Amino acid sequence: MKNLLLASTSTLHGQKYLEYLLPEIEKHFNGCSEILFIPYARPGGISHADYTSLAASAFEQAGLAVRGIHEFSDPARAVKNADGIFTGGGNTFLLVRELYANQLLPVLKETLRNGTPYLGTSAGTNIAGLTMKTTNDMPIVYPPNFTTLGLIPFNINAHYLDPDPNSTHKGETRETRIKEFHQFNTQPVVGLREGSWLEVKGSEITLKGGKSARIFKAEKLPYEVENESSLNDLN
Amino acid sequence: MKNLLLASTSTLHGQKYLEYLLPEIEKHFNGCSEILFIPYARPGGISHADYTSLAASAFEQAGLAVRGIHEFSDPARAVKNADGIFTGGGNTFLLVRELYANQLLPVLKETLRNGTPYLGTSAGTNIAGLTMKTTNDMPIVYPPNFTTLGLIPFNINAHYLDPDPNSTHKGETRETRIKEFHQFNTQPVVGLREGSWLEVKGSEITLKGGKSARIFKAEKLPYEVENESSLNDLN
């Protein structure tokens, strides 16, 4: 039975890394002795080792040890054997390229379908969707494919941001970008605001964190769903 | 001799489409009877025909006729025979996918190297750089490659936006994204603010439009160059 926490962001304004998620992390990974960390997204170009240290120092406060997947000679086996898995944010193109390069997508998908508890933040959340085609990230590297894990039957837009009514900038709003996405793709998109996460328990998908989320469907007007709403029927 | 205008945006806040560029368009395409428009980037999912009408209504004010490339049975020949070419903004992934699908990149590159006057705005400017890896757009479709025209020896970040010191949003700033780009790529990036354009005349590249631009190089601190600066040595 799938057991996923898919968070929009790792960090809230004015807080430390993962601070707001620590109570959830403690519950979610209860009984795990060591968490496998996937640092491939490398925010700001940070090294795998430094990123793993950052994750470890946060997880330590929840009484959990962390080991980076780059430390294993057989990363697929590390995924299969993990007590729990956390994929951090950064650049989704880089994350997906590395997952393909290490042939990890099939084993990660199977492992998470079988119930290994998983936390994703930002890019680590994007990859739970059907494709990475609704990431906000810059295409700094070329992945062999945009298809991701498909653990949920829709896409996520992490760090969802409402249009700023006072903006004079002419770059596209997030809503315009997702509208463009729906000219070429049919799956729904959940605009997940910072501080929100999706809790996935088997086929139950629930919005958590206190905020509403914005749902985009092809050829429909976008709408809001409230905190604690079920998204089981969104596909 | 190359003869390009590469604008950050088509439209300034509170103005009509291409309004601020009309005096430049008139000079740049002086002597042309018809401009070939490449509408592939389809902003907001608008159709090729509607986008071409929008471009035509702006160019009409500069006394120029416009025809969309989608109206030609042989688009490569349309590029070769064009008096002048304009590629509008929208989604860079879509634009690049369509350019590859129609096998237009080599012919467009050769035609523009040989001096056919060209205007790009936003996505149409991004493709003049070495790659599309510094676009801000959402990857709504998967192009076969991120390599673009390489008419200038660097990349452009269109709609360049300075970090907002009052923001509480945790999505990456533009500067952070470009820093990530430079972990994996060596070419410089010109952060081109809205209202700015690059004028390329042969090997002479000049910043125009009244604003400074921000230059990013791998392993260097970013710096500003003033309006009317030469970028001939940036590579």
From TrEMBL, chains A, B:
Keywords of the record: Hydrolase, Protease, Serine protease
Molecular function GO terms recorded: serine-type peptidase activity
Keyword Cell membrane: no
Gene3D superfamilies from the UniProt entry: 3.40.50.880
Pfam family, one: Peptidase_S51
Keyword Manganese recorded: no
One example of a Gene Ontology biological process annotation: proteolysis
Family: Belongs to the peptidase S51 family.
Protein name: Dipeptidase E
Organism: Salinimicrobium marinum
